[in-house]
Amino acid sequence: MHDTNAHRATQIFAPLTASAVLVNPVGLHARPSVKLTQCAKGFTAKIEIALAADGPWTDAKSPVKVMRVKAPQGATLHFRISGPDGEAALTAMLALVHDGFGEA
Amino acid sequence: MSSLRPGNVGIVIVSHSPKIAEGAADMVRQMVGDAVPLAWTGGDVDGGLGTNVAGILAAIETAWSPAGVAILVDLGGAETNSEMAVEMLPEDRRARVLVCNAPVVEGAVIAATESSGGSSLAAVKRSAEEFYA
């Protein structure tokens, strides 16, 4: 019963994936990490980031974990997002990266 | 501040040095923004290095939020004086103030980031303490 429900949930909210190159000079250091986390927290969707398309995946809502990724400038940031507001979340996250977190 | 959301957990920074406490608070404001109630205190009553309970109580009052207050401390006396200040709070507030086991600067930024997303006091403390995990 529980497994059936879990399966149904993943069917409805199939994970969205996309990637963007970090353009801001210092990469994902402290300040951009805070902005990324704050943006992610604005959505109910599960949001994860990784430096490679196959992971390892990091919870984008955890400021400490995001800072530990230490993604440099030029790195490709991959997103994996699932949830009812996943599309809006993906749009917002990609815009943040493209915008250099407001400091490029 | 107009953007202040009273529902977010407040952050109090306690250091032996008022310069460290104020500097850490500056970092929080610049990196996280104004959505979090924030106060700092540092120095003993004579203006030297140290901490004092009255100053900590005043900081808790300034940063008070119905969601509670997370305190970030540096060394020994900052922690014991903070715990003493919590003991002196009215009973209904005592359980809503927690001292975090986290580095004062990094912990303050992380705690404020967590708070700015509307997280609970327990989640704010947990996130700040991830630095030592």
Automatic annotation (TrEMBL), chain A:
Keywords: Sugar transport, Transport. Residues 15-104 form the HPr domain. Gene3D superfamilies: HPr-like. PROSITE patterns: PTS_HPR_DOM, PTS_HPR_HIS. Pfam families: PTS-HPr (PF00381). General (non sugar-specific) component of the phosphoenolpyruvate-dependent sugar phosphotransferase system (sugar PTS). This major carbohydrate active-transport system catalyzes the phosphorylation of incoming sugar substrates concomitantly with their translocation across the cell membrane. The phosphoryl group from phosphoenolpyruvate (PEP) is transferred to the phosphoryl carrier protein HPr by enzyme I. Phospho-HPr then transfers it to the PTS EIIA domain. PANTHER family: PHOSPHOCARRIER PROTEIN HPR. This is Phosphocarrier protein HPr.
UniProtKB/TrEMBL annotation, chain B:
GO terms for cellular component: membrane. Keywords: Transferase. The keyword Signal does not apply. GO terms for molecular function: phosphoenolpyruvate-glycerone phosphotransferase activity. It is an enzyme of class 2 (transferase). Its EC number is 2.7.1.121. Residues 8-133 form the PTS EIIA type-4 domain. It catalyses: dihydroxyacetone + phosphoenolpyruvate = dihydroxyacetone phosphate + pyruvate. GO terms for biological process: glycerol catabolic process; phosphoenolpyruvate-dependent sugar phosphotransferase system. The keyword Transferase applies. Gene3D superfamilies: Phosphotransferase system, mannose-type IIA component. Signal peptide: none annotated. Homodimer. The dihydroxyacetone kinase complex is composed of a homodimer of DhaM, a homodimer of DhaK and the subunit DhaL. Component of the dihydroxyacetone kinase complex, which is responsible for the phosphoenolpyruvate (PEP)-dependent phosphorylation of dihydroxyacetone. DhaM serves as the phosphoryl donor. Is phosphorylated by phosphoenolpyruvate in an EI- and HPr-dependent reaction, and a phosphorelay system on histidine residues finally leads to phosphoryl transfer to DhaL and dihydroxyacetone. This is phosphoenolpyruvate--glycerone phosphotransferase. It comes from Bradyrhizobium neotropicale.
